[in-house]
Amino acid sequence: MKTSKKDPSVYSMLQSEHERCLRAIRLILEEIARLPKGSLSQRKIKSNGKEYVYPCLRYREGAQVKFQHISATEVDTIAKLIERKKKLRRDVESISRRRDTIADILKKGGFPLNSGN
Q1: How would residue 4 be classed by pLDDT, with cut points 50, 70 and 90?
Q2: Whole-angstrom distance between the N-terminal and C-terminal Cα of the chain?
Q3: SS3 labels along the chain
Q4: Domain span at residue 98?
Q5: What is the rounded CA–CA span in Å between residue 36 and residue 78?
Q6: CA-CA distance, 66 to 109, in Å (whole number)?
Q7: How far apart are CA 47 and CA 31, in angstroms?
Q8: Whole-number Å distance between alpha carbons of 41 and 70
Q9: Which of the four pLDDT bands, split at 50, 70 and 90, describes residue 75?
Q10: In a domain? residue 61
Q11: Is residue 114 part of a domain?
């Protein structure tokens, strides 16, 4: 439905929602930075004819793949944190799509974005 007048209250609501999305993304990215990077794996070490398997955290530092030993008691905790990180990344993608859609609507309406993107 086309209207002849643009309602500025709707656009101000969209601008505030755009700003809320930017704040949410920033906070989520800060939380992601505090969580452990990489993924859980197991390393096999052969020593004196025996094979030992222990859990480790596998992550990249530049071009190198690093392995960090994890005690068996920490595995469940680390696994939960890694799952949380995956969920937060999906949330960032979802919020980013929402933010981009709102930004497109505001640009088409001729209203400037107050902050960020």
Answers
A1: low
A2: 28
A3: CCCCCCCHHHHHHHHHHHHHHHHHHHHHHHHHHHCCCCEEEEEEEEECCEEEEEEEEEEEECCEEEEEECCCCCHHHHHHHHHHHHHHHHHHHHHHHHHHHHHHHHHHCCCCCCCCC
A4: 8-108
A5: 8
A6: 50
A7: 40
A8: 10
A9: very high
A10: yes
A11: no
Q: Residue 80 and residue 50: Cα distance in Å, rounded?
A: 31
66 neighbors 59 (Cβ within 8 angstroms)? yes
Residue 99 lies in a domain: yes
CB count, 10 Å around CB of 25?
19
Q: Does residue 115 lie in a domain region?
A: no
Q: Cα–Cα distance between 81 and 88 in angstroms, integer?
A: 10
Q: What percent of the chain has pLDDT over 90?
A: 68
What total number of domains does the chain contain?
1
pLDDT of residue 113: 72
Question: Are residues 41 and 91 in contact, defined by beta-carbon separation less than 8 angstroms?
Answer: no
Residue located via tokens 């939380």: 31
